[in-house]
Specification:
Elements (H helix, E strand, L loop, with lengths): L2 E5 L10 H9 L3 E3 L19 H14 L5 E6 L3 H10 L4 E7 L21
Parallel strand pairs: 1-2, 1-3, 3-4
Helix pairs in contact: 2-3
């Protein structure tokens, strides 16, 4: 079976993917739908310090803390950007990267040029 990490759109949260997660869970897949810092039920954490790098770290943390391998990582809308950064940080754990109607910058481009996307240490 597959391990999926599905990341919500720009101002949403994990609930956006509950129905999809339930259908995949019922078929035996492991599905994780994190809500990123400052969004949805985590809106109370919003601040000017929350950047693209924060969202990359959020996604990487799910993969590492859940000890996920052979991951299918999906990014919806704006989240195409941080999933690229996260996939790069945990490349050895990745199987596939899927963009769902997502923003996908070309190599060398950035959606947020003043926001570094370094991998968390």
């Amino acid at each position: 079976m597959s391990t999926l990490v599905v990341v919500h759109c720009g101002f949403g949260g994990s609930w956006e993917w509950t129905a999809v997660a339930n259908r995949h869970d019922a078929r035996g897949h492991d599905v994780f739908t994190p809500t990123l810092t400052g969004m949805g039920e985590r809106a109370h954490l919003a601040s000017p310090d929350v950047t693209l790098a924060t969202h990359v770290e959020d996604i990487v943390a799910v993969v590492e803390m859940e000890d996920l391998h052979d991951v299918i990582l999906c990014g919806h809308s704006y989240r195409g950007v941080p999933v690229i950064g996260a996939a790069d940080c945990v490349a050895e754990r990745m199987r596939l990267l899927i963009y769902i109607d997502a923003l996908v910058p070309r190599d060398g481009e950035s959606a947020a040029p003043r926001s570094p996307t370094r991998c968390p240490t």
